[in-house]
């Protein structure tokens, strides 16, 4: 998220590509409110959604302009909408933020939310003053706003932003499920005292109901929490957790969870897979789908909590996609890496720290590439990167160590999950180039250093033809600071900051690999 925040800040300036420079104020004269990076299901950047405030037209009501850029930073379309935000003593919002999610039919689900601050009597935490629209990128048609509240879909609802009516200004969460449709997960946290059932409801592109799947009836203290993992035209894979709720917040997850397989066309539950030995282990997970299999991969830990110091290694469970039956389960324990890496059975690499798993990438032949970064909890220190290649049984094949700058945050202490959410790791992102080829990007600088004005280093690791290779991008400058971000396939986005002497400049640079 740190990279996204920096991108939001720097988008006030200019874009530069192939020697052509365009000022952002040529796209809009308004104040930039929010941006969202648009990615496809393979994690590749396909464009950017920009939201500007053009004018205040009434109390708590604003005219906003949206601008869509393609992956080449070229303007695709724009339009104007009217939106409200809270500005009362009870609830205050500094702006409207947006998140854009791309579906396979080239439509954007736009999630608009009041950017509620802590200045008001009610803070942002736990309140979802959101509304949705659908933008068809083929026709530039923008739908009316819609929300789901109190078990009902409201199209073009009235937003009055009155303090006495704040419950009606909230919504349950919508999400596009790949190859399925637009799905709302009705958890009932907006009016939990009246909840009789919790369910998923699927809609088509015209907001016509396709199916409804009730996953819990008469929920009380022990609730099911369903989290979307993956889907295709055959099956939806949902993580099913047991939890307790206080107010509108999940406060406790109970031991044990399972995977629910739901039919993509009918919404009927097909089967349930319960994770093994949940009395002994906890798990993190990534999900991958193939034509006939479901892959569940991640780290597993001793005990009931995901704890960095109790990390045992990696696992991979393979399920039959049609039945949910377990076909195979494989593990890699850290001690099996003895002789290949100086690592303890708890996953601590000598002089480097514990390994945090950023990604587990399934190859067509069943091999797995694992992207990890060594870290220390106290003080938070991010050290070298390790790229592992494992076979289809998680047996070790290769490790590629990448040395980089060791960033240390003095006086800090945090678990890996917190470090990740804060954007404090140096790994930036990856590109899936297809044909089992990837590009990985990472920061190779001291994060709080004035030396970056002279020279800035970013690392690129390529995986092609079964080999890892590293290259360093050195950006030298005397009058500015240059930052790098992930961009479209085969490119990196460079942002040059002249510290107010002139506008920022953007350019796309092709990567040779």
Would you mind describing this structure in some detail?
By secondary structure, the protein is an all-beta fold. It contains 2 helices and 38 strands. Strands 26, 27, 28, 29, 30 and 31 form a 6-stranded antiparallel sheet that branches. Strands 21, 22, 23, 24 and 25 form a 5-stranded antiparallel sheet that branches. Strands 3-4-5-6 form a 4-stranded antiparallel sheet. The protein is globular, with a radius of gyration of 24 Å. It comes from Flavobacterium suzhouense.
Q: pLDDT average, as an integer?
A: 86
Apparent shape: globular
Number of helices: 2
- In terms of DSSP E residues, the strand content is over 45%
Mind summarizing the main beta sheet? Answer: 6 strands, antiparallel
- Cα(first) to Cα(last) distance is 27 Å
Helix content: under 10%
Flag low-confidence runs: 1-22
The gyration radius over C-alpha positions equals 24 Å
SS-based class? mainly beta
* Number of DSSP-assigned strands: 38
């Amino acid at each position: 998220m740190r990279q996204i925040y920096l991108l939001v800040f720097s988008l006030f300036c200019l874009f530069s590509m192939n020697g052509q420079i365009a000022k952002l104020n040529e796209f809009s004269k308004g104040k930039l409110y929010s941006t969202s990076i648009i990615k496809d299901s393979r994690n590749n950047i396909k464009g950017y959604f920009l939201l500007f405030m053009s004018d205040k037209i009434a109390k708590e009501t604003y005219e906003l302009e949206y601008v869509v850029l393609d992956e080449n930073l070229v303007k695709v379309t724009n339009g104007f909408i009217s939106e409200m935000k809270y500005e009362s003593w009870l609830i205050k919002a500094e702006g409207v933020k947006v998140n854009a999610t791309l579906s396979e039919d080239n439509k954007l689900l736009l999630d608009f939310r009041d950017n509620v601050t802590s200045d008001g009597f009610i803070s942002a935490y736990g309140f979802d003053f959101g509304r949705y629209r659908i933008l068809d990128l083929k026709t530039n048609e923008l739908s009316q706003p819609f929300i789901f509240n109190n078990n009902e879909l409201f199209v073009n609802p009235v937003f009055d932003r009155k303090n006495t009516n704040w419950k009606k200004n909230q919504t349950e969460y919508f999400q596009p499920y790949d190859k399925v449709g637009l799905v709302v997960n009705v958890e009932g946290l907006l009016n939990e005292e009246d909840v009789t059932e919790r369910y998923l409801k699927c809609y088509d592109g015209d907001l016509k109901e396709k199916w409804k799947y009730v996953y819990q009836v008469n929920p009380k203290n022990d609730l099911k929490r369903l989290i979307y993992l993956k889907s295709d035209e055959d099956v939806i894979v949902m993580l099913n957790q047991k939890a307790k709720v206080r107010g509108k917040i999940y406060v406790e997850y109970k031991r044990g969870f399972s995977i629910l397989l739901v039919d993509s066309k009918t919404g009927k539950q097909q089967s349930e897979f319960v994770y093994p030995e949940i009395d002994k282990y906890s798990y993190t997970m990534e999900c991958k789908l193939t034509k006939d299999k479901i892959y569940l991969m991640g780290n597993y830990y001793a005990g009931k909590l995901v704890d960095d110091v109790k990390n045992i290694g990696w696992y991979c469970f393979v399920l039959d996609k049609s039945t949910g039956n377990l076909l195979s389960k494989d593990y890699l324990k850290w001690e099996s890496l003895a002789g290949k890496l100086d690592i303890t059975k708890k996953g601590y690499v000598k002089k480097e720290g514990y390994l945090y798993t950023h990604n587990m990438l399934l190859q067509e032949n069943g091999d797995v590439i694992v992207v990890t970064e060594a870290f220390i909890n106290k003080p938070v220190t991010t050290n070298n990167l390790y790229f592992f290649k494992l076979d289809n049984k998680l047996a070790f094949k290769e490790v590629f160590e990448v040395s980089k700058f060791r960033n240390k945050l003095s006086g800090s202490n945090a678990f890996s999950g917190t470090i990740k959410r804060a954007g404090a790791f140096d790994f930036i992102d990856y590109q899936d180039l297809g044909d089992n080829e990837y590009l990985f990007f990472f920061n190779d600088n001291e994060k709080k250093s004035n030396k970056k004005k002279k020279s800035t280093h970013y690392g690129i690791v390529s995986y092609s033809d079964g080999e890892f290779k590293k290259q360093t991008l050195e950006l030298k400058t005397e009058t500015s600071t240059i930052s790098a971000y992930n961009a479209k396939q085969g490119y990196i986005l460079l942002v040059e900051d002249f510290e107010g002497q002139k506008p920022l400049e953007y350019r796309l640079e092709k990567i040779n690999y």
